[in-house]
Design brief:
Blueprint (H helix, E strand, L loop, with lengths): L3 E2 L3 H16 L2 E4 L12 E11 L4 E5 L8 E5 L2 E10 L3 H12 L2 H9 L4 E6 L3 E2 L2 E2 L5 E2 L1 E10 L2 E5 L23
Parallel strand pairs: 2-3
Antiparallel strand pairs: 1-12, 3-6, 4-5, 5-12, 6-11, 7-11, 8-11, 9-10
Length: 180
């Protein structure tokens, strides 16, 4: 059995992209892609900043009665922070719209429907982070951090003994020990 994690960065970004697309109606992609050209405005860039544990591990034993399929599942509530950058003439409006929606039941419902065990916690206030492009022209860019909770499960093999053989072995020991 291999060691696995059920919620990857790709799954988190896919769920976030699925939330953003119907709202912003423009291209939404993962940031920090090497040798990738910047798309035509407007667009949204998602960049994972960090993950932090919110709890200690909870261990769940999944004993199937078979050493090949029995496993130990460790889960820990975690916080995922993503920087969202909105580009284009309407970047301020789009950033304010998304940041405002993240604080609603609508967002919780959308993320629950994504199939990924995550929920929005909060969003920072959007702020301007103007960008100067290759032609030395100012372009609209608004940014904020989106924070969500997710609950990844790490599955490891379980040490397993389906039969034991007990034998007696004589040893040359006196109990309780005598002090000489």
């Amino acid at each position: 059995m291999t060691i696995t994690i059920d919620i990857t960065e790709d799954k988190l970004l896919t769920a976030l992209r699925g939330f953003l697309l119907p709202i912003v109606q423009c291209e939404v992609f993962q940031g920090q892609g090497n040798r990738a050209t910047v798309p035509k405005d407007p667009f949204v860039e998602m960049t994972t900043i960090r993950t932090e544990g919110l709890s200690t591990n909870k261990e769940i034993w999944a004993d199937t009665g078979n050493s090949a399929t029995s496993a130990i599942k460790n889960t820990r509530s975690s916080k995922w922070t993503v920087q969202l950058d909105f580009y284009g003439e309407t970047s301020m409006d789009a950033a304010n719209l998304v940041a405002g929606l993240i604080r609603t039941d609508f967002a919780c419902t959308q993320f629950a429907a994504s199939g990924v065990d995550m929920a929005p916690l909060y969003a920072d206030e959007p702020h301007q982070t103007t960008m100067i492009n290759g032609e030395q022209q100012y372009e609209g860019r608004w940014t904020f951090d989106f924070v969500a909770q997710f609950n990844p499960v790490i599955t490891t093999p379980m040490q397993y003994a389906d039969h034991l053989q007990i034998q007696l072995a004589e040893v040359d020991v006196i109990f309780p020990p005598r002090i000489a």
